[in-house]
């Protein structure tokens, strides 16, 4: 018998798809799926095409498509005059809804992950402090093995907690709160958190542990800090993995440059607006594969007061010097670095700038899991990826 002629009873379909027979009968009664043919005894007989259609129904239902839309998709309501075009339109609209929900869930997951990491850190790993002339840098250490510094800006100890835990089985992992972030202590007159100043802080922290080279993973602004560390203190870098340094300076994009400058200019007086504009022009909150571009706008919820205060500092003082930083390409060539970007960060500002940096350095660009915040949202997968890059 040809495979296309093969027929299945309701019990077989139930096993293949994972739906109870009663559920299959319910979908049929409700007009969600077309009624299958029946044999002489009145038993349902499903073709392979029927099975695949029902399997698709399950995926659509799991992702929240209303039953009425599913009935239209399957053709059970018999109303579509051009089923192929109609199904394409339905799926396109549903994909937009699913992507919107995924963005919302990812933002919620990031907040939940930060809180879990925060509470775990408070219980298990109270910070130590490194005194600097104008501040004290909070840092934590866990694990055994070669020294590995996780570097972010503005991401600090809490944002890296889950990734540090994943890496602690192979490395002695050091995380820290950059000046003005987290539990780092500031004093009046503290120097602004430019890449040059943050790199000096990092060099002092490295010197706290070793006078020799160490390994680093820097993400976002932390990758920019490492580019400046390569200029100031190349002897400290044994190997550095740079994940999505968001360097507008490398893109030769006047419109993007203007939008960034405008966002940073209003951060002190209107941090909600600054955060929205930063979110829109960076695209960093989205998941975009190679054939997708981030939407031009997606409204952020109203930020609570603590988040507004953080954005006054990050967008008002740290982000501008970071994204407009111009790396020393020759200095970077003299140290061992690997460049990587999120597999779901395509056409976003930070990945575009990392591609430009890779071109200038003549280095390959490696994909890592997730998008711009993959280090915190997918820590296990991200840890495996950067561990491999540290060994190349």
Task: Compile the SSE list and pairings.
Blueprint: H1 10-17, H2 21-29, E1 37-38, E2 44-45, H3 48-62, H4 67-74, H5 83-124, E3 128-132, E4 135-142, E5 147-151, H6 157-167, E6 172-176, E7 185-186, H7 195-209, E8 214-219, H8 221-232, E9 237-243, H9 254-265, H10 271-282, H11 305-323, H12 329-333, E10 337-342, H13 349-361, E11 365-368, H14 374-377, H15 379-391
Parallel strand pairs: 5-6, 5-8, 8-9, 9-10, 10-11
Antiparallel strand pairs: 1-2, 3-4, 4-6, 4-7
Helix pairs in contact: 4-5, 5-6, 6-15, 7-8, 9-10, 9-11, 10-11
Q: Profile the largest sheet.
A: 9 strands, mixed
Shape: elongated
Low-confidence parts, pLDDT < 50 over ≥5 residues? none
Average pLDDT taken over every residue: 90
What does the oligomeric state look like here?
single chain
Helix count, DSSP H or I runs of 4 or more residues: 15
The string of secondary-structure elements, in order, is HHEEHHHEEEHEEHEHEHHHHEHEHH
Amino- and carboxy-terminal Cα gap: 53 Å
Number of strands: 11
Structural class: alpha/beta
β-strand percent reads 5-15%
Radius of gyration: 26 Å
